[in-house]
Amino acid sequence: MRNIGLYIHIPFCRGKCPYCDFFSVNWDRNAVEKYTQALCRKIESLKGRYNAETVYFGGGTPSSIGTQNMIKILNSINSSFGKSCVECTLEVNPESAKEQDFKLLKEAGVNRISMGLQSANENELKALGRKHSAEDVVKAVSMIKSSGISNISLDLMLGISEQTEESLERSILFCQELDISHISAYMLKIEPGTPYSRQKNSLSLPDEDTVCDLYEYTVQRLKKSGFAQYEISNFSKPGLESRHNLKYWNCEEYLGLGPGAHSFINKNRFYYERNFDSFFADITVNDGKGGSEDEYITMRLRLSDGISKTEFKRYFGYDIPQKYIDKAAKLEKLGYTVCTQNGFSLSVKGFLISNTIITEILTAK
User: Fold this and answer.
1) CA 174, CA 170: separation in Å to the nearest integer?
2) Distance from C-alpha of 33 to C-alpha of 29, rounded to nearest angstrom
3) Are 190 and 200 in contact (CB under 8 A)?
4) Pair 224, 288: CB distance under 8 Å
5) Cis-peptide into 59, omega within 30 deg
């Protein structure tokens, strides 16, 4: 059996945030039941083909389908994808946590929770269209820990309306006091077709320089709090990085199930369209070959470890082309990269304009 990461998309929400671009629909009991059954059938049809080393439930709001439906899906995974899963993550919204039985979820295999805090400041949460309060997060984290699940990640957003360094400091301190293991700090991106995109001219957002300052402040402040940066937007206590997401950034294999879910198996990329009909009919779209040299470098340079000569040769069977090493060395003089004897990575300054720097490296001659 192939060792993979398994992603399960749960496309239901009780209310869509104005900045969200992920495929989701309004919660409906009958739709949830039908989708749960379809997922279980699909999972069981794959029995014996894959060994899921990691499982990740994303959305939408996965917790919105309820504990019993989640357990049905987990039981199908456990019987079809082997017993060697080392990390099973469930995304949870703070306001839906009180409806979950985390002890039962833990018994079924969930051992990591990812929760959307976004901010600990009420004015910022309101501007983001969030339905929870900071106190809801405190209660949710307490419930999760009491179930025996200790690996908890919280999301923060940077560059949002009304955010200042002082308010960001309050959010970081809030996370620190909750004694969690992982923080994802994402810079707000206005996606086409979202309410935020239509409202962007009226949104009171920080300017680009301020957002860069907030990002650099976050990196330094989290480092002081014991959270090591291991990816552009991700920080963890030692040994508690997201193993599932590392599969994406390391160009390892993963299988995605559900509308809009993407897969990378045997160097081939494919995905389900963003609708239920395609998934129910099990029709995927071919997205071409994956795992190329350019793709590998692009994904690995998202990581603080960057490009390792040893790992590059293990993946491709040959050494890193010298042109990439030479270009990285030139960019190091400008403060955008860090070069060592075993490879190179982006600096914090380089992370801020990662797309530009990665393009510079990939187009080196």
Assistant:
1) 6
2) 6
3) yes
4) no
5) no
What is the per-residue burial (b if ≥16 Cβ within 10 Å, else e) of 252-263? Answer: bbbbbbbbbbbb
Q: Both tokens of residue 33?
A: 């039941």
Task: Record the tokens describing residue 28, joined without a space.
Answer: 């409906």
Q: Which residue has the tokens 């993550």?
A: 89
Which of 338, 311, 342 lies closest to 246, judged by CA?
A: 311
Query: Global pTM?
Result: 0.95
Tokens of 119: 């901010």
151 - beta bridge partners? Answer: 112
Q: Find the angle CA(97)-CA(102)-CA(106) to the nearest 5 degrees.
A: 145
d(CA 145, CA 169): 24
d(CA 143, CA 31): 28
- Residues, the chain: 365
Q: What is the pLDDT along the chain (365 residues), one digit of tens a residue?
A: 789 999 999 999 987 788 888 888 888 999 999 999 999 999 999 999 999 999 999 998 999 999 999 999 999 999 999 777 999 999 999 988 888 999 999 999 999 999 999 999 999 999 888 989 999 999 999 999 999 999 999 999 999 998 999 999 999 999 999 999 999 999 998 888 888 888 877 788 888 999 999 999 999 999 999 999 999 999 999 999 999 999 999 999 999 999 999 999 999 999 999 999 999 999 999 999 999 999 999 999 999 999 999 999 999 999 999 999 999 999 999 999 999 999 999 999 999 999 999 999 999 99
Burial of 315 (0-12, 13-18, 19+ CB in 10 A): middle
Are 173 and 165 a contacting pair, CB within 8 Å?
A: no
Beta strand segments in 95-231, E: 112-118, 151-158, 182-187, 228-231
Q: List all residues 6 or more positions away from 30 whose beta carbon is below 8 Å from its beta carbon.
A: none
Tokens 């929770």 belong to residue: 113
Residue whose pair of structure tokens reads 């160097």 in the numeric block: 267
Pairing of strands 268-272, 284-289: antiparallel
Paired residues of 52 in beta bridges: 4
> In Å, how far from its chain's centre is CA 292?
22
List, in order of start, the domains of the chain with CATH numbers. 2-248 (3.20.20.70), 303-362 (no CATH)
